Amino acid sequence: MTPTEQQSFTIDLGNNLFVRGDVHAPAEQTKRPVVIICHGFKGYKDWNFFPYTAEELAGSGYYAIRFNFSCNGVDKEDFDELDKFAVNTYTRELKDLEALLQAAKDGDLPYSDMFDTDRTGIVGHSRGGATSIIFASEHPEVKSVVTWNGVADVDFLGEELKQDIREKGAGYIANKRTNQDMPIKANLLEDIESNRERFDILSRINEMHAPLHIIQGDADGSWLQEGAEKMRDAASEHSLTIIEGGTHTFNAAHPMEHVPRELEQAMEKTIDVFDNYLR
């Protein structure tokens, strides 16, 4: 991989909300396409494979942006803002992406004078895949979308959890890695229910101008594998790659001490897709 460099940034959205991230730049800083990396539920920019992903993209000649959604629950370390995590929504994440893309266009991010924002790609993991698809369907600047084990339905919380949220005002999901009970308030359910049409992933895929490439591990959850096939079938221009033996994280663990072959395969395919559509 060719040498890269990186710089951090913070976008102040007001109301104590911030989009914090890092731009990874190729060694040769000429006008080049941009790839935005979206983490998923219980993810953040420094988690697991996201630094690796950004480095690989920058080493392949892209400006790669990894960032934290403003209500992902992370400020300085793992989930030190659970009050924000509790009220996160898809609408909030889409507004964060809008602010990020606008900052890129306005030259307010590191290296952004060299960004070719008319050739923007997005890669989203898990729930971040759904957010990426919705955003791309509304922004023609996005010319290519790749999902890693992405969800095909935004309403993926279990019925028991949703009942707790409705009856008690909040439900909780255990984070075994951090030993935290992570709260979810009714904001998320209300957001989904009031945006059924906008958040209908299969409809958005069918209407999307940007080609979608779905990368799915066959050792991931069956509902995600079934969703990947539904997304592939939503429109003929979209495509699917199956990573044999790939788990939800393509066999990588946090902190990532080595790069599994399954992750390498997902990364190689991702770069191939962006080379095809963004170059």
TrEMBL record:
InterPro entries: AB_hydrolase_fold, Dienelactn_hydro, FrsA_esterase. It comes from Salibacterium halotolerans. This is Dienelactone hydrolase. It comes from the Bacteria. Coiled coil: none annotated. GO terms for molecular function: hydrolase activity. The keyword Hydrolase applies. It holds the Pfam family DLH. Residues 23-195 form the Dienelactone hydrolase domain. Keywords: Hydrolase.
